[in-house]
Write a structure and sequence with these properties.
The structure is a single chain. The protein has helices at about 45-55, 80-100, 105-110, 125-170, 175-195, 200-215, 215-235, 240-260, 265-285, and strands at about 5-15, 20-25, 30-40, 60-70, 80, 115-120. It has about 290 residues and is α+β, with helices and mostly antiparallel strands. The chain has 3 domains: about 5-75 and about 125-145, Ribosomal Protein S5, domain 2, CATH 3.30.230; about 80-120, no CATH class; about 150-285, no CATH class. Helix 1 links the parallel strand 3 and strand 4. Helix 1 runs parallel beside helix 4 (about 125-170) and helix 4 (about 125-170) packs antiparallel against helix 9.
Length: about 290
């Protein structure tokens, strides 16, 4: 299955502790790069989240946003901590013996002191379980989105491969005709220069010419690379890096074909091959 590195998925899940928001966004990248943004309620689970994402995604730059919005039921009214208040009162009474002319205690400032007001603690185990389940669902949605995009990329690459196969099939039949044309031109030039028919010299020149323009090896390798690309596209393993390597090899064969060209037709085919290979390479940059 071909997976694109581009995808998006999100979900809101109502829990006993509040509304859990999970958002994943992925774009292409050479390796797997995670950027996590967790609010204070979920920061303790960063290692768990990172491990869970790494287990399911291979490559790409992934932005993950997680937050827990506490609802009214979960976020009960703040309660006074009488123990802390008593300690503050005793400390204030003792301090007043040394500073009898100080202003009365400001009650609002007292309420803002750490530990004076308390709220119900979050259920850490329940949050972790809800987080894992929700993140797993969103990861599955993201992979499904990447698979849909991957099918589009696969279709584009297969279409370009079909055009390349057509061009490769056009080259081989051209070779005998090019050799024949060269032989005719060479014979005419020798006749004009020496006014004689030196068949042996013509044969030697034709052999050298045929060896110089022989592209059978390049065409065989191109055909082999085409079949390998198809095989990888239909396999289940990660394909991006292997396909990128094959594009380099195919471009090398297209360049060699152009360097051996002795006719406008084969030069044009070489250029068209390189354009198609580059178009495939651009698409492959988005494959995981």
């Amino acid at each position: 299955m071909v997976l694109s590195m581009t995808g998006y998925a999100s979900q809101e899940y109502n829990t006993a502790n509040g509304v859990l928001l999970v958002e994943l966004r992925s774009v292409n990248h050479r390796y797997l790069e995670l950027q996590l943004k967790l609010d204070d309620n979920l920061r303790a689970f960063e290692a768990t989240v990172r491990e869970q994402i790494q287990a399911k995604l291979g490559r790409g730059k992934v932005d993950c946003r997680l937050s827990l919005v506490r609802n009214i039921a979960a976020d009960s009214s703040p309660q006074l901590n009488h123990t802390v208040l008593q300690q503050i009162a005793e400390s204030a009474k003792t301090a007043a013996q040394y500073f009898p002319h100080t202003q009365p205690v400001n009650m609002l400032e007292i309420l803002q002191m750490p530990g004076v007001l308390t709220t119900a603690a979050l259920d850490s185990d329940a949050i972790e379980a809800d987080l894992k389940n929700t993140l797993n669902t969103v990861l599955d949605d993201l992979i499904a989105a990447k698979a849909r995009e991957g099918e589009k990329l696969k279709a584009i690459i297969l279409a370009r491969l079909q055009e390349i196969e057509h061009l490769v099939a056009k080259v081989k039949p051209m070779m005998p005709n090019l050799i024949k044309q060269y032989q005719e031109k060479l014979t005419v030039k020798l006749n004009e220069a020496t006014n004689s028919n030196d068949d042996e010299r013509v044969r030697q020149e034709i052999v050298l010419f045929a060896q110089r323009i022989d592209v059978d090896e390049e065409l065989v390798r191109l055909t082999s690379h085409i079949e390998e690309v198809k095989r990888i596209l239909n396999a289940t393993a990660a394909a991006g890096k292997r396909l990128d390597f094959l594009m380099q090899e195919m471009n090398r064969e297209a360049n060699t074909l152009g360097s051996k060209s002795v006719a406008i037709e084969t030069s044009q085919i070489s250029m068209e091959l390189k354009v198609l290979i580059e178009q495939m390479r651009e698409q492959i940059q988005n494959i995981e």
